[in-house]
Amino acid sequence: MSYFDILLNFIESSILLFLITSLVNRKDTNIFIPASIYLFCSTTLITAINQYQRFESYLFIFDLVLIVIYLKIISKDSIFKILALGTYSTLLIASIYSTLLITVSILTLGRFDYVELMLNNKIVLSILAESLFLLFSYLSIKFFNSFKDTLSNIEYIYLFILFISIRLIFVTFETLLASNLINDVNTILSIFSLVLFVLLTCTLFYRISIYRSNLLKSEFDKQLLNNQIALSKKIQNSQTELLSIRHDLKHILALMSRKDIDSINDPLLTSLVQKYTDQINDIFIPFETSNSILNNVLNIKYFEAFSRNIDIVCNINVSKKIHIGDDDLFLLLSNLLDNAITHIGKDKKIYVDINYTSALKIKISNSIDKEDIINQPSIQQSEYHGFGIQTIKNITNKYKGDCLFEVRNKMFNAIIII
């Protein structure tokens, strides 16, 4: 084992580290130490396996175990997603190396001969293989990050099983090839079929992700329409109540203007004034900001809180157009207010601060009775599609933002900066 081989193993492990780290949603912690440990272990593992080649077929299993341990430390994602993405990473290495070596061998030697091929072209092939691995890693990151948050755990389980199956096919194929049990024609057909199978599989899941995104968009549009209809009815009812009070107030003013009545001490007038004061206080007055999505969500959630005797205090400073998508803004604010209303304390106070200048800053604070509410399982799910706080985190990660959940002075604070 030469220093050049160790250097190649280090480069391969570094590219793999870059790939798997970029595919997941990371925790808000420094990853330098776990990344360094993984890089050392991975390089050592590949070097050791190259020394004892009878275990080379099982390299991907050991590599996958290392990847899963590393990603569980740095990632917020589920174990199913980690398994699927980790298996894909090892599959990508195998497919690039096998395809490159077999293709070059057949084109230059007319047959597959690994020993002769590496004897004459080791440095060139190694540089080419690592370059292709880096290129396809970058393309994979762009591809998976475009839809990774739209797949469910069950779909990641399917992906994991599929990638494991393909990886085992590669192991079997490489073993047969090394034993000279496959001729050149079968080799070319097998490689072509495997590559086509992988491409079609990725395309299929990409189409599934597009379908799921469109489905979520349709659900958003439907929910938005229902909210607008409900809001219109509430505003109409408020207008009817205000017109009725306006009519009655005319009679009160006429009564107060009569000279034969002491308007200050008259019990009838005092009772009427108190009655209509209470009615006015009970009338829903809609919010009006420069952003229609904010208007929609705030008014619906305000009315919901109003009906539960929860007081919402809002401080809004936004422009007409916010840089995140309408559906994401709707989901983000809906889930934040859902959690605040669901877990309200005895004080029944919710404070909403939304400010948009160079970045969108949202702070939702609600009174609580238990300081450990942030750890309660119920807060992890919301009635809106069952996403809850995970949806809030996903949307924040999508726009490379930050989110913080904290409990301070019996107030639960959700702070989002995008």
TrEMBL record:
Keyword Transmembrane applies: yes
Keyword Transmembrane helix: yes
Transmembrane segments: 6-24, 31-49, 55-73, 85-111, 123-144, 156-182, 188-208
Highest taxon of the lineage: Bacteria
Pfam families in the cross-refs: HATPase_c_5
Span of domain Sensor histidine kinase NatK-like C-terminal: 328-417
The entry's keywords: Membrane, Transmembrane, Transmembrane helix
InterPro entries: HATPase_C_sf, NatK-like_C
Protein name: GHKL domain-containing protein
Source species of the chain: Anaerorhabdus furcosa
